[in-house]
Design brief:
alpha+beta, Lipoprotein, signal, two-stranded antiparallel sheet, 331 residues, 7 helices
Length: 331
Amino acid sequence: MTTFRIVLALLTPVILLAGCGSDGDTSAEGESANECGSAFNPATAVYQTLSNFNVTEPARLDRTLFHDVILGVQPASSEDPAYQAVADAVKVQTARFNGGEPETGTNSYASVRNPLDLISLMIGEDQVENFNEGRRYISDCIDAGNPAEYSTSANGKLVTFEEVQNETVTDRYNYPVVRWVYAPDASGKVQRVIRYQGRSGEDLQGALVGWQYNARDFSSIGFNRPELLKASFTAGNNQQRLSLEQAFIGMDKDQWLRSSDISFDFAGEAVDCARIVVDYRAQTAELFTSRSDCTSEECRDEYVAGNAYCGNLAEGTGETYSTQPVADRLN
């Protein structure tokens, strides 16, 4: 999809640089936030405790990563069992990565539990002061027309959220990268990248998400509506993967892609790749699936790079069905 290739082109350099450190500490400690456009970087270490990592409130669930696509794959007719099975499979397969608990009798989750949704909500709800400071800095630099960066990795700082119940740490999310970048001479956009690193023995090993925002509309408080988004999750000893790509401008489409080194069940079919492209304006979903018989890493690499892999199949060549409207994506 052309728009998603633009997402990759814009976000990949930021994601690659997000893991880089710096030669010196340019954090907010001992520096002045008035140095917009200089090497100033207000990122500091963040340690936050919460009583529960679960997201259960309806208003918060509406802002989670997979909310739109779960609704967007629902068939227009509830009497279509084949495509309802597809929609159900998307919900089930997503739950492994976003910690979703299905809500009986609805097309939504009753709760989700994952590091990307949690930190995104914490940022949008202005719950972390250093993130607030970083966004104010970015906003000030946009007004001044100067480039700016907030980067925990560049300052060698770590963001940690801990779930504490009855004075006992029950879970921990570590984020090596939280980064905002404004580059007026390049994209002219604001880009945000967050990377989560799982701990040894955890099923979810890593997650990465990048957003692009219109600088003219960027706010230092509350939730900013993105133009583009790309997220990926890796689990199961690097054998299980899920990605989401969203375009909120132009074509207004989402792409959901589930892949694995081994076969999994998807709507009654054994596959190792399942992909759905949701067109919210046309109210359609296009399904692609594939499966290889590879037994070696070399064979699988060739398969994933080739034309038979479902992630590489051209739009218009899949199986298309009509879907229910998603009000938030029709504006």
